[in-house]
Automatic annotation (TrEMBL):
Matching Pfam families: Radical_SAM (PF04055)
Top-level lineage group: Bacteria
Organism: Tissierella simiarum
Name by which UniProt lists this protein: DNA modification/repair radical SAM protein
Annotated ranges, domain Radical SAM core: 58-190
PANTHER family: ENDONUCLEASE/EXONUCLEASE/PHOSPHATASE FAMILY DOMAIN-CONTAINING PROTEIN 1 (PTHR21180), TYPE II SECRETION SYSTEM PROTEIN K (PTHR21180:SF9)
Amino acid sequence: MNVLEKLKILSDAAKYDVSCSSSGSNRRNKKGGLGEASVSGICHSWSDDGRCISLFKILFTNYCIYDCAYCVNRYSNDLSRAMFTPEEVVDLTINFYKRNYIEGLFLSSAVYRNPNYTMEQLLQIVKKLREEENFNGYIHLKAIPGADKEIIEKAGTYVDRMSVNIELPSNEGLKLLAPQKNKESIIKPMGLIKTKMIQSVEERKKFRASPKFVPAGQTTQLIVGATGDNDLKILKLSEGLYKGYNLKRVYYSAYVPVSANPKLPVLKSPPLVRENRLYQADWLLRFYGYNADELLDNSKPNFDLELDPKCDWALRNIHLFPVEINRADYDMLLRVPGIGVKSAMRIISSRKFSSLDFYDLKKLGIVLKRARYFITCKGKHYGLKNMNSEYIRNKLVIDKYKNEPNTDIEQLSMFSLYPSLTMEDNIIKIGGQF
């Protein structure tokens, strides 16, 4: 099999891994070197089947010793298999970079032979790129659960970001769908990466010449919908990972049915709206000061698919509203649907000079179609006379569908190496402030 045939198979196999990010690292070019990474991140373009173009996103191999029911690369699945050599990956990365196709590498792999062997191959690749090719572009590497810590530690000195995919939110899910894996083997490398990152920061304070370890941090991915785990359980797991392992991001991937295994749920289509709600809730955890137990509880363990989590929370706490826009503190402003972080800061800054009315809020970029139900301006309320949560919910849902555009939306792609690999995806319209 030639390199292009391998590339066709292994780039397509990598599209199911959504934890593909490229920001947070400052790696400057050196004399005689090639490329650099910027802390501001890389602008992405996406192919039709969801692959990130600006990062060279591939698997080292899709040969796998595991038989995870939810995974397309499981060893019992009948599909085309391929495996690069380390030299082939290095050569492709450098040549694609020189042609301005990519600005970095996202390298993952199925587990071939055993975790140590696979991790050693990945280490060879990133070591060759940095030391032999003097490549200073961005590298995101997947750490293989079960590999020796010495190999993971060594690889972490060459890359900008590492990630370890948890994939399933509970031990029960792992036992059911991936019995060859266990939670401890996944969590252990995450703890190792966190510890080494902290040590690296402390060392750099004393010795500026000491190498950075995973300067852009670590991430993980959770599959949504392959098991019966509710949104509350998933969100509490994410909250624990942010607090306990200093993760940069948790990525949520709607389960795509890839087999007819009786242990898997029967879905007509991936739960994309649910995935979107979890991303919105994750944003609230990281930037709006919410806790998982505020957004959901045992009496309501799943998000409302018709409303974003912030609106849902506001309606369940309607006794806190309406708030006066000219007196509410910053934290309370962030709780108002339609007001984001930047808008809340603008309100705080603007009202130092004069009281704000609804016209002023519109100029500040507030989404008044949502916010008007939950605020007053100079004592005036332009929402509904009755602060009834069910009535407001109905109005919000009706307004959402009333303003839903009928035009088809397509993602732009910079180029496509293999047009035959593209497929039609359902696209969710995500945007605006919560």
